[in-house]
Amino acid sequence: MIPPRSRLLEPLVIVIVIILFGVGLVARFVVAGKLLHPGHGDSSFYYTVAENMAQGRGAVVDYRWHYLGLNHPANPSTSTATITHPAFDYWLPLTSLIISASMGILGISLFAALVPSILFGVGLAAVTYGLATSYTPSRLVAVGSAVLVFLLPTPFFFSLQTDTTIYYTVFASLSLLAMVRGMNYPHPWWFLLAAVGAGLAHLTRQDGVLLFVLFAGVAWCSPHPRRTRAAVLLAGTGIYLLTLAPLLGYNLRTFGALTPPGVSSLVFLTDYEDLYSFAKDLSLHSYLQWGIGNILWSKFDAILQHIMFLRTFLGLLLWPFVIAGLFDMLWSKEQSPHRKTFCAIHGLFLGILILFFAFVATFPGIGSFFRSGVALVPFLCVIAIDTIHRRVPSQRFAIALVVILLVFTGGRSMVKAHTMLRDAATMAEQLEAVEAVIRDDASQSGQEPIVIMTRLPWQVYHSMRLPVIQIPNDDLETIYDVAGRFRATYLLLPAPREALWPLYTGEVEDRRFRLVASVPNSGFKVFRIR
To answer: Phi and psi dihedrals of 59, rounded to 5?
Structure first.
C-alpha cells in the first residue's frame, strides 16, 4: 500500500472543510423551514402516518393507494371496502416511527419531521469517515469523503425528504462498514453490528433482507476459524430476527401472516402501473402468458436502467476518479488485501441489488434500486477522493482539487435546494387550487362526504385531508366499480390510465364522469362522479 503523503491536514484546509460542512448543514435547516409540502408519494405517506401516530391514532392511513390483498381471505383487516386502514400493508414502519418521535418532541410540523432526516445526513458523513479509515490511513481521504457525501446532491436531497432513503442508507452503510471490519480486523464480532444494521435497514425497506444475505455470505467466508464463523453466523441471525420481531408481530396481529398479503404478487407485474390494479390477475400463469421474450427483455432493460442510475449518484466530474481507482484496484499489485476486501464487499452488494431488482422485483425495482443504491455513495466517495490523494503528483494540487470538487458539489446541491423549494411550492399551490374547486362544487351540488379518486393519493391527502383512493389501472368499468365501492365522488386527472385518457383530453364524454373544471395554472381537471 502506498503510504499517505501527510497525516495532518493544513489548517487552512481544515477551516475550509468546516465552513463547507457548516454551509451544507445550515442549508438543510433553511430548506426544511421553508418547504411547504413533503413532495413525492413516499415522503407524503411516511409523514402522514407519523402524524397519525403522534396524534395517538396509531399506524393508519386515510386513503387507499393500492389494492394488493384487498380481498384476501386471510386478511380481515383489509377485506372490506373501508378507506382508513392499517398503514404498513406494503411499506415498512421504522421511518414513520422515527418521524413521529421527532414530532412528539418538536411538535407536529414538516420541519419537525425533517430534523431526524437532517441528523441522519450528518450520521451518513460519520459512517463515511469510518469507511474511509478502513480503507486508508489518510485523513485527507477520510475528511474529504465525509464532507463530499454530505454535500452531494443525491444524499442532500434525501436528507430533506420524509421517506426511507436516508435512514436505509445510513443503516446499510453501517452494516457494510461492519462487514469490512469483520473481514479485516482480528475481532469477528464486528459482524454482529452488521446484522444489527441489516435488521434496521429491513425495518425501513423490504430489500433490507439482501443485506442479511450478504452478511451471511461474508461472515461465512471470513478468514476466522470455522467454529468462530458458525458462532458469528448463528448469533447474527438471532440478532437480525430479534430486530425484526416487532414487525413480524405487527404483521401477525394485523394480517394473520408474517408478511402483508398481496406483496408477493409484485413479482408477476408486467407493467409498473399494475401495482395499482384492482382486478388484474397477478400470478405466475398470467406472467408466463406475457411471453418469454417480453420477460427476458424486461430483465435486460431493468439492468440497463440500474447501471444508468449509478451515474446520477456522483455526477460526471467524480466518476472518472472512481473508475480510475477501481481499475487501479483490479490491476495494481500494490493494493493490499484489505483494500480489495473493501471493494469486493461493496461490489457484491451492488451485484445483489442489480440481480434482485432485475429478476425478482423488476418493475417496482426501477425506482427502488435508485433509493437502495444510495447506500453505495459513501464507498464511491472514498474511492474517488483516495484516487486523487494517491495519484495526483503534487499533494498541494491534490488538496486544492478536492476542495474545488467539494465547492462545486456544494453549489450543485444549492441549485437542488432551490428546485426543491420551487417544486414543493408549486405542488402546494396547485393542490390548494384543486381543493378549492372540489369543495366549492361539493357545497353547491351536495356531493358530500367528499372522496377523491386520483393517481396521487399521498400528495392529495396531505394537502386536503380528505378521504382519497387510487385510480385502479384497469378498464373503465372496473374504475367506475371501484369508485362506487369506496363511494368516490370526484375524479382528479391526469393519470397514466389508458381508459381515462380520452376523457381527460375531451375526445369522449361519459355521463358517469362530469367535468367540473380545468384547474388554472395546472394540468389538473376535476370530474364529478355520478
So the answer is: -85, 75
Indicate the DSSP class of residue 510: B
Handedness of CA 300, 303, 309, 315 (dihedral sign): negative
**Measured distance CA(80)–CA(236) in Å, rounded:** 40
Beta strands 513-518; 525-529: pairing state: antiparallel
Element (H, E) at 197: helix 190-202
CA distance 36 to 110: 8
Mean pLDDT over 82-90 rounds to 93
DSSP letters along 330-362, please? HH-TTS-HHHHHHHHHHHHHHHHHHHHHHHTST
Beta-strand pair 60-61/85-86: antiparallel
- 405-461 pLDDT, tens per residue? 998 999 999 998 999 999 999 999 999 999 999 999 999 988 889 999 999 999 999
d(CA 208, CA 185): 25
Contact by Cβ (8 Å): 387, 332: no
**Contact call for residues 263 and 69 (beta carbons, < 8 A):** yes
Q: How far apart, in whole angstroms, are the C-alpha atoms of residue 173 and residue 71?
A: 38
Q: What percent of the chain has pLDDT over 90?
A: 75
Q: Which of 146, 116, 104, 134 is nearest to 345 (CA)?
A: 134
Q: Give the DSSP letter of residue 133.
A: H
Q: What is the dihedral of CA 254, 256, 258, 259, to 10 degrees?
A: -70
For residue 169, give every residue at least 6 positions away whose Cβ sits within 8 Å of its Cβ, in sequence order, or none: 120, 124, 155, 158, 374, 375, 377
pLDDT digits over 206-260, tens only? Answer: 999 999 999 999 999 999 999 999 999 999 999 999 999 999 999 999 988 998 9
Residue 8 confidence (pLDDT): 47
Under the banding of pLDDT at 50, 70 and 90, the label for residue 80 is: low
For residue 213, count CB atoms less than 10 angstroms from its CB and return exposed for 0-12, middle for 13-18, buried for 19 or more.
Answer: middle
Radius of gyration (C-alpha) of the chain in whole angstroms: 25
Interacting residues of 63 by C-beta distance below 8 A, sequence separation 6+:
83, 457, 458, 460, 461, 467, 468, 469, 470
Nearest partner of 173 among 367, 342, 360, judged by Cα: 342
| Residue 313 near residue 154 (C-beta atoms within 8 A) | yes
Q: Are 231 and 326 in contact (CB under 8 A)?
A: no
d(CA 327, CA 443): 67
pTM (predicted TM-score): 0.94
Nearest to 51 by CA among 84, 99, 86, 90: 99
**Dist. CA 71–CA 382, nearest whole Å:** 49
For residue 194, what are the CA distances in angstroms to 75, 80, 224, 236, 304? Answer: 34, 41, 16, 8, 30
Helix (H) or strand (E) holding 468: strand 468-470
Instruction: Show the CA angle centred on residue 357, arms to residues 97 and 122, nearest 5°.
Output: 40
* Phi (first) and psi of residue 517, to 5 degrees: -170, 150
